[in-house]
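LAB NOTEBOOK - FOLDING QUEUE
OPERATOR: T.R.
BATCH SIZE: 2
PURPOSE: Compare the predicted structure-token outputs for two unrelated chains run back to back under identical settings.
PRIORITY: normal
REVIEWER: second-year student, initials M.K.

ITEM 1
FIELD SEQUENCE / FIELD STRUCTURE:
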Amino acid sequence: MRFTPKGYGGCRRNPDQIKREGWKEQGLLAVAVDDNRLSWPERELVRQLGEKLYGKREPEVRHG
């Protein structure tokens, strides 16, 4: 007999489902600054909000 604690069995939720539930249940919004579902002005607003709340992002490191 196998016992699996609650939350460790079954199917895993995908990231969009977690984000959707976070928004609907707690009013939390998780948005990627490069989400292609957003228009340029919307992505720019997300970037500006992120910088206002958390500061500038680290520059991308290019390998090669």
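ITEM 2
FIELD SEQUENCE / FIELD STRUCTURE:
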Amino acid sequence: MRLAATRIFTDDLDALVAFYETATSIGAARLHPMFAELRTPSGTLALAASATVPLLGEGVAEARANRSVALDFLVEDVDATYRALRDVVADVVNEPTDMPWGNRSLLVRDPDGNLVNFFTPSAEAARARFADPTPE
């Protein structure tokens, strides 16, 4: 099994697409006027208009209601990301901060209030996290 995408339902698709395109420097593929994808090597962030929810089942999802999930984006330099986003992000939850587990993290909220974490692991944390587990 492979996680194919994470999807966010929104009442303002254009605003959310613009935010994630700016935040990630990735152009969204607009597959339909009510659906867009930002594709990365490790997964896809799908953005869908709330008008698509009834196609899945009445009331199965609600825009702007998430308070339990964070999107994590690994970036090369979290401080540079902060400088680039400072004038675009309305809600900075936590400026770049060194976390006890070895990441330097920037927490913001997207226009729908979803928590977004941009992080850069310390050199030691990166070696531990991304080390090849296969023995030589």
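REVIEWER COMMENT (ITEM 2): Residues 13-24 form the longest helix (12 residues).
FOLLOW-UP: none requested
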